[in-house]
Design brief:
- By secondary structure, this protein is α/β, with parallel strands linked by helices.
- It has a single domain, classed as Rossmann fold.
- It is 36% helix and 17% strand.
- It has twelve helices and twelve strands.
- Strands 4-1-5-6-10-9-11-12 form an eight-stranded mixed β-sheet, sandwiched between helices. A two-stranded antiparallel sheet has the order 2-3.
- A hairpin with a 2-residue loop joins strand 2 and strand 3.
- Helix 4 (77-93) runs parallel beside helix 6.
- The chain is globular and about 70 Å long.
Length: 310
């Protein structure tokens, strides 16, 4: 596939400006670039779990979405999307609809890793021709920055607050991307807002136009929950990749493929120190916490390299 950045960036916007997402929000940037994976002549049906994305882009009767949009409850974005896709197939066979429609579900990590995991797993296992996109900002941001199973170790949230008796969230982050691979679906990928967006553009197009179920996990920083200056979002994403906290890879028909291997793998503290939610890790006496965090990152990186045959 020939990649033309200018051509892709000149595609029509399917998420209009004027929504109410925060400045420096990774979720909005992720959605806009995922939707650039659609061919201009094709239409989409978007389902969206209750989330920052939903409440800020669809204020009845106004919508920022240029395609058909369905808001559903926190837990059933995947179920709704799979049901609409199945209905479309029936209507298409009966000749009652024409044109090409693609079905995309969006959910935050709270509605994906936790509350919506059951319906997501079921839709993927049935292999519906749809794409589920998790914009992973590492907490329940819309309802007050509570920890989720996507929240990284030692992160400061309102339900894992740092204090005299707590160093932040004590559990490791769930590896949902690997869990989705175990559903034996045609396509799974992990990406973020990296460099010129080529990685997210190519993976979005591949996910949308691969027949059957596809899952994309997109790290999407949140300025309020992660506590960073809005202009730093791209640097934070770069550091997540270059420290191997958030590796870029895809799994195509069960084959693991590493998309990027840092020439100089940076220590994870470079990623952590850009975020206020980890500032306690850099206080004297907490050095072992960063070492613990680094050990887990290194372990997961070694496992990924083995899976990818590196």
């Amino acid at each position: 596939m020939t990649y033309n950045f200018k051509e892709i960036m000149n595609k029509k916007e399917r998420l209009a400006p004027g929504h109410r997402m925060c400045a420096g929000c990774g979720g909005t940037i992720a959605v806009r670039n995922i939707l650039r994976g659609l061919r201009d002549q094709d239409q989409a049906v978007i389902t969206c779990a209750t989330s920052c994305l939903e409440v800020s882009t669809f204020m009845y009767p106004h919508t920022a979405w240029q395609d058909s949009f369905i808001h559903n409850t926190f837990e059933n974005a995947a179920a709704t999307c799979s049901g609409v896709q199945a209905a479309y197939e029936v209507l298409r066979k009966k000749g009652r609809v024409d044109g090409t429609y693609k079905f995309i579900a969006f959910g935050g990590d709270g509605g994906t890793y936790d509350i919506g995991l059951q319906s997501l797993s079921a839709a993927m296992e049935r292999n519906h021709d749809m794409v589920y996109v998790c914009y992973d900002n590492g907490a329940y941001m819309n309802t007050g920055i509570q920890r989720s199973s996507a929240t990284p170790l030692y992160a400061d949230t309102t339900t894992s607050p740092v204090g005299k008796l707590s160093k932040g969230k004590p559990q490791y982050r769930k590896d949902l991307t690997a869990i989705m691979v175990e559903h034996n679906i045609p396509y799974v990928a992990q990406t973020t807002l990296f460099r010129n967006m080529r990685d997210i553009h190519e993976k979005a197009a591949r996910a949308i136009y691969t027949p059957g179920a596809a899952f994309l996990n997109v790290m999407a920083p949140c300025p309020r929950g992660w506590v960073y200056e809005t202009a730093d979002i791209m640097e934070i994403c770069r550091l997540a990749v270059d420290t191997c906290y958030w590796p870029l890879f895809e799994v195509i028909e069960g084959q693991w493929v590493l998309n990027y291997k840092p020439t100089n793998k940076l220590p994870v503290e470079e990623f952590l120190k850009k975020q206020g939610r980890f500032k306690h890790l850099f206080k004297k006496g907490n050095e072992q916490l960063i070492e613990h965090f680094q050990a887990e990152v290194d372990k997961r990186w070694r496992v990924l390299l083995e899976r990818c045959g590196s």
